[in-house]
């Protein structure tokens, strides 16, 4: 039933399926594997990674990009990865609230997810979540990383293009030529 719902574009079914994929419970992992088997293969979507420091305006850039893609008839999914608290294990997961212009659009699916203290700016199951979104018919997927520093480049291996949203005056000339994240991005957008 869940596989049928995902194929038909039912948002609730997709949300439940993503929860199974994210879960660490053995039974949920078994069900997620069965779900992938039933859904079969799907064409790979264009995946855009958006990264940058906290407060640089990643959510605003995402909202504008998604609105542009919607104008051209695209179906878009956003995976917004938030940091998890080391003390409580919880995450705020507030990105959906920030993207109010697209959050309720029928051709947009936004999924906030905790990184569960995984390094690299992503969650452990983010690659599987992208695969599930492709099987649900999304042809454009944005992966917004947690606010990152210079060495969190895990997203580079998951996406087709990587956009760094940066703030003006965020360091001197030496900062701009350091290796790490700057070597991995395709586009740098100076925001605000």
Can you walk through the features of this model?
Helix content is 38%, strand content 18%. With 192 residues, it is α/β, with parallel strands linked by helices. It is globular. The mean pLDDT is 83.
Question: Topology, please?
Answer:
Layout: H1 2-7, H2 11-22, H3 26-39, E1 46-51, H4 58-71, E2 76-82, H5 95-98, H6 100-103, E3 108-114, H7 126-135, E4 140-144, E5 161-166, H8 173-177, H9 181-184, E6 187-190
Parallel strand pairs: 1-4, 1-5, 2-3, 2-4, 5-6
Helix pairs in contact: 2-3, 2-7
Features:
single chain; 192 residues; alpha/beta; six-stranded parallel beta sheet; 9 helices; 38% helix; 18% strand
The number of helical runs is: 9
Major sheet characteristics: 6 strands, parallel
The gyration radius over C-alpha positions equals: 17 Å
Classification by helices and strands: alpha/beta
Shape from CA axes?
A: globular
Question: Mean pLDDT score, rounded?
Answer: 83
Q: Which percent bin holds the helix content? A: 25-40%
Oligomer: single chain
What is the total tally of β strands?
A: 6
* CA-CA gap between termini: 46 Å
Strand content: 15-25%
Q: Please give the order of strands in the largest beta sheet.
A: 3-2-4-1-5-6
| String of helices and strands | HHHEHEHHEHEEHHE
- Unreliable residue runs: none
